[in-house]
Structure to design on (338 residues):
């Protein structure tokens, strides 16, 4: 197993090198002048040039790249111009918020998509199957930010059922729980602070559903297709001919073969959700890495943009590695064929 893990990790090195190179040069092609932004609107040309020299932006681009790679090798992602803090510190402070939001969105999508996909496959062309296809089409058709704005209008503005979409917690009424993981719901649960847990969950429901609806479509579609293929297999026909109970055929034999394609999709969907947080965090005032990246792009904050993209790439690699390991546990042939 360790040889398999090392092989996968070594195989990701060229991809990470490509991400570092592309991110550096693309971020420096962004419109705007970070020196002018940092100097402020009242600065003159001389002071802007002075700041540009201080930040090292007056040097040739290849020289800046060599310095960037040298810092990266020491674990230094640079310093953000917008917050004044090291980029690594900023990202680690905000990452738990984005992971919490993405995890709840994925749980919401899984809890609906997988049972619906299985049910639709057993009722092919029936009412459940048509309802599944309609929900998949509708949920994939609307962009996440539109669904988020629609939910805010209906459930907060019209009905008053949801709290104000102003972040992870109403910090006027509640204090954040003691920091353990950075995820407010988990930290409140560990501290036994039930009012903060309820308040955190109430803030989380609308953004998680808005994000999860888009993730629901590919999971339900893959589950239905994989389940149909499994139900049409020879071993299922043999199980039926042997008189085994329907529940055992579905859950023990058919669904086990569905786990492999569904787990592969879940890894990609979770990576997609982390990237999609950029829009949802803006709509709901969520203090995650997505909102941080948007602010960095607007300010042409090169170090913050590069750090965000590199962190997303590393998370994507780790998620795919986790999916590969899970696949070998479900079907050991994957390890030998890989």
């Amino acid at each position: 197993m360790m040889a398999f893990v090392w092989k996968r990790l070594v195989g990701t090195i060229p991809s990470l090198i490509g991400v570092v190179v592309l991110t550096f040069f693309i971020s420096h092609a962004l419109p705007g002048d970070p020196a002018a932004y940092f100097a402020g609107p009242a600065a003159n040309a001389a002071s802007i040039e002075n700041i540009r020299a201080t930040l090292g932006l007056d040097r040739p681009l290849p020289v800046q790249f060599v310095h960037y790679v040298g810092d990266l090798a020491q674990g230094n992602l640079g310093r953000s111009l917008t917050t004044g803090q090291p980029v690594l510190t900023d990202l680690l402070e905000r990452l738990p918020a984005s992971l919490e939001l993405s995890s709840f969105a994925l749980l919401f999508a899984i809890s609906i998509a997988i049972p619906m996909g299985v049910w639709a496959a057993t009722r092919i062309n029936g009412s459940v199957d048509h309802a599944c296809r309609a929900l998949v089409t509708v949920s994939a058709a609307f962009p996440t930010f539109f669904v988020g704005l629609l939910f805010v209008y209906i459930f907060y503005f019209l009905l008053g059922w949801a709290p104000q979409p102003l972040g992870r917690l109403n910090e006027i009424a509640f204090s954040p729980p003691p920091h353990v993981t950075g995820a407010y719901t988990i930290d409140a649960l560990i501290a036994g602070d039930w009012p903060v847990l309820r308040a955190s969950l109430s803030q989380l429901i609308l953004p998680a559903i808005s994000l999860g609806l888009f993730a629901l479509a590919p999971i339900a579609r893959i589950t239905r297709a994989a389940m149909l293929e499994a139900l049409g297999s020879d071993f299922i026909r043999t199980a039926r001919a042997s008189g085994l109970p329907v529940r055992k055929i579905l859950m023990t034999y058919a669904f086990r073969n569905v786990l492999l394609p569904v787990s592969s999709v879940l890894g990609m969907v979770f990576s997609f959700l982390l990237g999609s947080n950029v829009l949802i965090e803006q709509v709901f005032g969520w203090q995650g890495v997505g909102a941080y990246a948007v602010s960095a792009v607007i300010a042409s904050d090169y170090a913050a943009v590069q750090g965000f993209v590199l962190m997303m790439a590393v998370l994507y690699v780790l998620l795919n590695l986790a999916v590969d390991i899970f696949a070998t546990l479900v079907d050991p042939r994957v390890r030998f064929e890989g």
